UniProtKB/TrEMBL annotation:
This is TonB-dependent receptor. One of its GO terms (cellular component) is cell outer membrane. Transmembrane segments: none annotated. It comes from Dyella tabacisoli. Belongs to the TonB-dependent receptor family.
Length: 934
């Protein structure tokens, strides 16, 4: 009775915060209860992620969260990407499938602790996989979660601690280890369909798992898993304001609707203004032209605005007339069309009583179809055509007879635009394990090759555009009269195939040593030899494609490593673990990373644990190979003097700015110091909880040269340090003598001073049994970030937690301070119902890497004091077993149809943040399925 009272008190204290804060990802803390010695002899030992020594007590000195196949099914999530990215520790730099404008479009990645995707190591069955063939932002390597088979998953173990002492580079923030079924007997199939209440996104999915053979009696087991999923697109026009337009004038925000000459954003009907050559310009029609004094714009199309445009004649920012066009509604996509599928097979054979061998193979393909708005004739990069004009000799210049140029705003509506991405991953693994003279040993070979086919269509070729205007071969007045050959000449398809490879040989052995007061000491040793390569060619050779980023990444390296782990149960209540790994890289040299951990149990229901470790992240081939990249972000100018000089006109509104980076052969690897300190409680069999504090400090952090200080120096008229260049745009036609806005910032990678993040993880699980065979499970998991800061080489410290920074990182999603979820499941006979509440905290709409002064990235007055709201939504899932063979499943995702908070600054979604609030823009979503098991 005393123990139960104590348990109730502890449960009340731990669950009290739930009434105020909901945490992200429902993953239970593992049981910390240690079996008695006589029980341990009967229990099978297992290997837990973060340790190479098999153990009975699965609670290690490092915090590990396990997501079982049953939990995945109860969550209603249908892809590995959705499951892993819902982990509460996933934060800044996470990559969603919906970010179709990024370099890594069509892929998804996880970023534990907010240290970006390149500091989280993703393993399959404890072994590395090849990275996505294209780097995020042209910089960061990561494993595409879409290429991991969900149907064959046994569990996912998430190590929320540094693990370079065992796994080597990239395990600074933690490890996600996807563990597939080691064997399977039977036949199991699923079929699901789903659709959004608000239209779009219809999905269909099927899986099949079939296997046979028993290792004990037949000495073999073989199974195969097949899965397929196809998702229809969701278009912005299927959602309401403000997600279906970029005209926010009705809520006192900016009006960036298409067609405005002042914003160099033409409609498919075109606008022309009489102009002359700028005597200080280049002297040709591509740039340097000026409007004739007093001239006003007029619609180019002879019959005015068509069905997609609206005539505007009363816009003081654009004297004259133009056709406004809502490109967001007409072409914008909330979710691209995606089709993915593949198969996984495994054959295991028991060679003798002590030796087992297996071979597995998988092939997965993910297709993404992205639709883009028509290409604009005016772009600032890589070739500036913002001042382009039709010369007097062009047949479609309405002012040519008077010998005048026609400044033109125009979108090529007769040329469809978009990108097709086909990602493939082929992986083969072979392993042998056994025992010999008290040693357990294993040897594994991994061969993994990925290739990504990219087809970009509808983008303008600069030289072809100039030629078409010079020769008059493109019909601007009647685009429908253009031949297919004329369209293909001005906008040819651009194709490339990018590849990545990982080949490795992993060797490991472990054994028990002498007996200590707390049990037998354990030792594990191992070695690894691996080859890594990446080849991502230019998609835009010669920078001839207008408005399109560019990147090339080529590199190869060999890595050899040796590691050890020693575990000493010094007392029944005290365990100490020591590990270390030596790595030799052919491109960056040698490194050694140690780790020490402890677990102390003063009582059988309380465990204190902690770790201290060193870590390393090797430079990616984008950072130190034969590589360079140019990407784009949205720039909101906040410099008061600049805005005043341009009268705060359309030239100063948010626009696309190019960011170029070049690899640095002398770049150093990132190194980290990690420590964790936590407590695990299990006062009774129905309640377990863990609270873990983490502190990670990285030095030699690899970043592009800082753009924020570069912009500040540019506006202040100050020089930038060597290696940083700001390229100005063409002058503002309305104020040609004022300082032009910046068009491109070019930098080289540098080692910044340091990065530091601290925070707290909470995991609580409670389960109860009631009368009438009712079983109840409550699982709460959450992460609170206390600090996430970057100290620049000049000593400037930028704090990003709870803000929209780092803004130039990936999709600019920001660093929410709190993420978490609370799942509650009721099982009653054949029925199971789960409700999961997900929460992501709001943030200040600032990004110090974008604006070092801390200015608001949003121009909406209603956003003052510059805040973005939190996002909380609720998923409801259920299943009903008709009999032992057939189960009906269903779910209502985002059951209360919660809308995403307004986020004008995010450049991955139109006025919303898809990284944290994609469920909100999708809206209420229904799924219905059936599971058949034979």
């Amino acid at each position: 009775m005393k123990r139960n009272k104590l348990a109730l008190i502890i449960a009340g204290l731990l669950l009290a915060p739930v009434t105020n804060v909901a945490f992200a990802q429902s993953t239970p803390a593992q049981s910390s209860e240690t079996p008695a010695p006589q029980q341990a002899k009967q229990l099978q030992t297992i290997t837990v992620t973060g340790s190479a020594i098999p153990r009975v007590d699965v609670e290690t000195p490092s915090p590990v969260t396990v997501i079982t196949a049953a939990q995945i099914q109860r969550s209603g999530l249908t892809t590995v990407a959705d499951v892993v990215r819902s982990i509460s520790a996933d934060n800044s730099g996470s990559i969603p499938n919906s970010f179709t404008a990024g370099f890594a479009a069509g892929a998804a990645g996880v970023a534990l602790r907010g240290l970006t995707v390149n500091s989280t190591l993703v393993l399959i069955d404890g072994h590395r996989s090849a990275t996505y063939a294209v780097s995020d932002d042209g910089i960061r390597n990561f494993v595409d979660l879409n290429t991991i088979p969900l149907a064959a998953i046994d569990r996912i173990e998430v190590l929320k601690d540094g693990a370079s002492s065992l796994y080597g580079a990239d395990a600074i923030a933690g490890v996600v280890n996807v563990i597939l079924k080691s064997n399977y007997h039977g036949v199991e199939g699923t079929a699901d369909i789903g659709t959004s209440q608000h239209g779009g996104g219809f999905t269909r999915k099927a899986t099949l798992l079939a296997g046979g053979g028993d290792l004990q009696t037949d000495h073999y087991n073989a199974y195969i898993g097949v899965q397929y999923q196809k998702d229809n697109p969701i278009n912005n026009r299927q959602r309401g304001f403000p997600f279906n337009t970029n005209n926010l004038s009705s809520i006192h925000g900016p009006n960036s609707i298409g067609g405005q000459p002042s914003q160099n954003n033409g409609s498919i009907y075109g606008t022309v203004t009489p102009g002359t050559l700028d005597p200080n310009g280049s002297g040709n029609f591509v740039n340097g032209v000026l409007p004739v004094p007093g001239a006003v714009s007029q619609v180019l199309a002879p019959f005015g605005c068509g069905p997609k445009g609206t005539l505007v004649t009363n816009d003081p920012a654009n004297p004259g007339s133009y056709c406004s066009e809502n490109y967001v509604s007409q072409y914008g996509q909330i979710q691209p069309a995606m089709e993915q599928g593949g198969l996984y097979g495994r054959f295991t054979v028991k060679l003798n009583d002590t030796t087992t061998a297996y071979m597995s193979a998988s092939y997965f393909e993910a297709k993404t179809r992205v639709i883009a708005a028509p290409a604009q004739i005016q772009t600032s990069t890589p070739n500036n055509t913002n001042g382009i004009a039709l010369p007097p000799g062009n047949p479609y210049n309405p002012f040519g007879g008077a010998g005048q140029y026609a400044l033109i705003n125009y979108a090529f509506g007769d040329i469809p635009g978009g990108t097709n991405l086909d990602n493939h991953s082929a992986r083969m693994v072979g392993g042998v394990n056994g025992s010999f003279m008290d040693w357990n040993w294993d040897a594994t070979v991994v061969i993994n090759h990925t290739w990504l086919n990219t087809n970009r269509y509808g983008a303008l070729n600069y030289s072809a555009l100039v030629n078409a205007i010079s020769s008059g071969t493109y019909n601007f007045l009647n685009p429908g009269a253009n031949s297919a050959a004329a369209r293909a000449a001005i906008a040819p398809d651009y194709r490339k195939t990018s590849t990545s490879d990982l080949d490795s040989l992993d060797l490991g052995a472990n054994r028990q040593l002498w007996e200590l007061p707390g049990g037998n000491a354990g030792l594990a040793i191992g070695a690894q030899f691996r080859h890594e390569a990446q080849d991502d060619p230019f998609l835009n050779p010669g920078n001839m494609t207008q408005g399109f980023g560019n990147a090339i990444t080529r590199g190869t390296r060999n890595v050899s490593a040796a590691y050890f782990e020693f575990n000493a149960p010094l007392l029944q209540s005290l365990e100490v673990d020591l590990s270390g790994r030596f790595d030799h890289y052919t491109d960056i040299g040698n490194g050694f990373n140690p780790k020490v951990g402890f677990k102390y149990k003063p009582f059988d229901w309380v465990a204190l644990r902690g770790t201290y470790s060193k870590g390393i992240r090797a430079p990616s081939f984008s950072e130190n190979g034969s590589s360079s990249s140019t990407g784009f972000t949205t720039e909101q100018i906040t410099d008061a003097a600049f805005l005043a000089a341009h009268n705060n006109n359309g030239y100063t509104q948010p626009y696309g700015i190019a960011l170029g980076t070049v690899a640095n052969k002398n770049i150093k690897p990132e190194k980290s110091t990690n420590y964790t300190l936590g407590i695990v409680l299990q006062p009774t069999s129905w309640l377990s909880a863990s609270v873990d504090y983490y502190n990670i400090k990285k030095k030699n952090v690899i970043v592009p040269g800082q753009t924020g200080p570069a912009l500040a120096n540019y506006f202040a008229g100050l020089p930038n340090p060597p290696g940083v260049t700001v390229i100005p745009d063409l002058p503002d036609p309305a104020f040609p003598n004022a300082l032009p806005r910046p068009a491109e910032i070019d930098t080289a990678f540098v080692n910044a001073a340091q990065q530091k993040t601290t925070g707290l993880d909470v995991d609580i699980q409670a389960h109860f049994d009631f009368a009438n065979n009712i079983h109840y499970i409550s699982e709460l998991s959450g992460t609170q970030i206390f600090s996430w800061s970057l100290t620049l080489p000049d000593g400037t410290r930028q704090q990003f937690v709870g803000t929209h920074g780092p803004y130039i990182l990936s999709s600019g999603a920001g660093t929410p301070r709190t993420r978490g979820s609370w799942a509650n499941t009721i099982m009653w006979g054949p029925a199971t119902i789960t409700g999961t509440l997900y929460h992501t905290s709001g943030m200040r709409n600032i990004g110090l890497d974008q604006d070092p002064t801390g200015g608001c990235l949003s121009t909406l007055p209603r956003s003052r004091p510059c805040l973005i709201g939190s996002f909380t939504y609720f998923d409801l899932t259920g299943s009903y077993a008709i009999n032992d063979h057939i189960t009906i499943t269903g779910s209502i995702m985002n059951a209360f149809d919660k809308k995403p908070p307004l986020d004008q600054a995010d450049y991955a979604g139109n006025n919303y943040n898809p990284t944290w609030a994609q469920s909100g823009i999708v809206g209420r979503f229904y799924n219905l399925g059936v599971k058949v098991k034979l």
